[in-house]
Amino acid sequence: MLVQQQTIKKPVSLSGVGLHTGQRCTITFKPAPSNFGIRFKRIDLGGSPEIPALVEYVVDVSRGTTLGIGEVRVHTVEHVLAAIAGLQIDNILIELDSIEPPVGDGSAKPFVDALLEAGIEKQDEPKDYLIIDQAILYSDESKGVDIAALPLDDFRITIMIDYKNPALGSQHTGLFSLEKEFVTEFAPARTFCFLHEVEMLYEQGLIRGGNLDNAIVIVDRELSREEIDRLSRKFGLNEVVFLGSNGILNNKPLRFKNEPARHKLLDLLGDLALVGAPMRAQILAARPGHASNIEFVRKIRKLYLQKKLVKKYQFEKKEGIVFDINAIQRILPHRYPFLFVDKIVDFKMGEKIIGVKNVTGNEFFFQGHFPGHPIMPGVLIIEGMAQTGGILLLNGEESMENRYVYFMAIKNAKFRRPVFPGDTLIYEVEMVERRSKYCTMYGRAYVDSKLVAEAEMMAAIVTKPEFTSNEQTIEKDS
């Protein structure tokens, strides 16, 4: 079923102080056209710079998710993004007149209420879903974190947290329907921290806008009356502070029995919005935090960009083939008689690629190499590996159609076995190092699983209008 993109019907604003910076901010949500995505705009800065809500722009995850371009920053975006993702809004402009969105009550509910007040409307373009068709796993043994995305023709998240704390205990929760559960069951879940963290966070310049109305403080150690009074004065709290009998400072009631776990799910939902596309997947997470969330999102984002690349060049889906010969000719400038790769059967963007060349008796080079004893020239095997490597340079953000790849060096080339007519060459090329205009790759060629050639290849990537000769281009780029 075709599902359309969504935006809001009219602008809507709310104001308050940021959780960590304590600076006052007005946030304004504005409608945006189809395929615009989610963008933050700092209207208090010259030129009103925009930052796309994509994981490439994450610059800090110490106690929240911070986006940045150059010196421009937007702190603690996860609650805003959770509200947008939870309401399944695809296109929206978020204007801020300060560095951090208002914290509100510490949940996503204030943003959800504002967006619902603005109204949500469908747009003409279909949603660009990322279909998870393979398991994506992230693990950090040192922190006990495990996150997985599994194939599912829907979207669900299940969370488990365990802080070894009597007041908190082990908690879990699951969101199985954004439409039915998000607004009432998850958007109101507030942020939380432990009492032992409060002073440390304050000393780090954080939680300047935090108070007992916008955060749950979990009591995890005993404090004397003198210590409590000192902390109250330090944080400028007007109300009397006491250790709650329910394990929460000042006996603040929880909105849900497992509110901390629900808030962790809310944070993960906001961080997942940085993939840049809604997903069809089952997300399972044990002990997640912003640092692990973002590393997990980077892996998913990479898969998304790879799938977009494949869709861009490979018009017809074929079993066991990533790029067929027609797609390869859309990517590479090479043509007969100097195209030495027939198809790509595996492709991990920026990491590894596997290509196939069927060596037939009709190859032009067999006429002279050698008459009566046809053998494929070793340099052409390396050329085939290099062409396969040229496809590996696709990174989802730039096109290779207007670029050439020039050899700069070939090192440690070895030819192990001859290649004859009728052989099927398998090229395996791995990225060793990639810079903006230069790269190093290592290629291996196999026939019947036996290594026939290998080499390290260095290349320069140049756009077509910029070069007249290899030597001039490299001198210009260096």
Question: Describe the biggest sheet?
Answer: 6 strands, mixed
- CATH 2nd-level architecture of the largest domain: 2-Layer Sandwich
Output the structural class: alpha+beta
The percent range for strand residues is: 25-35%
Radius of gyration, CA atoms, in whole angstroms: 28 Å
Find the CATH topology of the largest domain: Ribosomal Protein S5, domain 2
Estimate the global geometry from the Cα principal axes: elongated
Distance between the termini: 51 Å
Can you count the beta strands? 24
Mean pLDDT: 90
CATH superfamily of the largest domain: lpxc deacetylase, domain 1
Can you give the helix content as a percent range? 10-25%
Quaternary structure of the protein: single chain
Low-pLDDT windows of residues: 467-478
The CATH class of the largest domain turns out to be Alpha Beta
- Give the total of domains: 3
Describe the protein in words.
Residues 467-478 have low confidence and may be disordered. The strands form 6 sheets. Strands 11, 12, 13, 14, 15 and 18 form a 6-stranded mixed beta sheet that branches. A 6-stranded antiparallel beta sheet has the order 19-20-22-23-24-21. It is elongated, with a radius of gyration of 28 Å. It has 10 helices and 24 strands. It has 478 residues and is an alpha+beta fold. The relative contact order is 0.11. Helix 1 (78-86) crosses helix 2 (109-118), helix 1 (78-86) packs across helix 6 (259-272) and helix 6 runs parallel beside helix 7 (290-313). The chain is 24% helix and 32% strand.
